[in-house]
Fold this protein.
Amino acid sequence: MPNRLAPLLALLALTGCATSGPEVPATVALPQVNSFSAHHPGDRLPSGWQPWTLSRFKRPTEYRLVDYQGRTVVRARARASASGLVHPLELDPRQHPYLHWHWKVEQLIAKADNTQKHLEDSPVRLVVSFGGDHDQLPLADRMFFDNVRLLTGQQLPYATLMYIWENRAPLDSVIDNRHTGRIKMIVAESGRERLGRWQEVTRNVLADYRRAFGEEPGPIIGIGIMTDSDNTGDNAHAWYGDIEFRRGAPAGPAVASQN
């Protein structure tokens, strides 16, 4: 199966997170996200996940499986750096519309502002990429995609949603990308109130996609995590717990906190 996540790296390279990037090794797409907690702490990446190197000119963020109060999670440490982990998927968002995950952030990146290209950093990101018919894209986006393909030899994902923790943008707001209408950032958390605590977050990806793009989504072809501080030159520490797509919504609030 051809690698369909490498083009996402190229898109990020052109939108401020990096200047160029090698391809991610091809991996068979799976019908579910392999959990972090099923693995032992250590240097090896959890099965199904692979390094997401944005640029050989950028310092990579450090990701490591660690024990956190008896469960295995991913610890991310960014030092003026930008890279991530990616996991190929093949899912129908109508069958599994709810994206559920845990993350924890100790401190915000003080200068970060994802509405400004030169300050576009976040201590945590979940990145969902979608397939689709590129011939149906507006002319401006097709031209942008063609330029990227000529530059990199890779095709961009049809659409991308990024769930981020923002400093000040309102919760649930949608931030447009300045280069293409095919990538949108959604503020899943904002401000300092929930810093230092594990957050349990559930998002309706199907509804978020419809709201952000004004259309029906194609298949989900990948999920990624990224902690980046390359644009601000700052440091960031964060933790990621298990990530999964679910058929139904959980009981209770969409966002819950725990120590």
User: Anything to note?
Assistant: The longest strand covers residues 235-246. Confidence is low (pLDDT under 50) at residues 13-26.
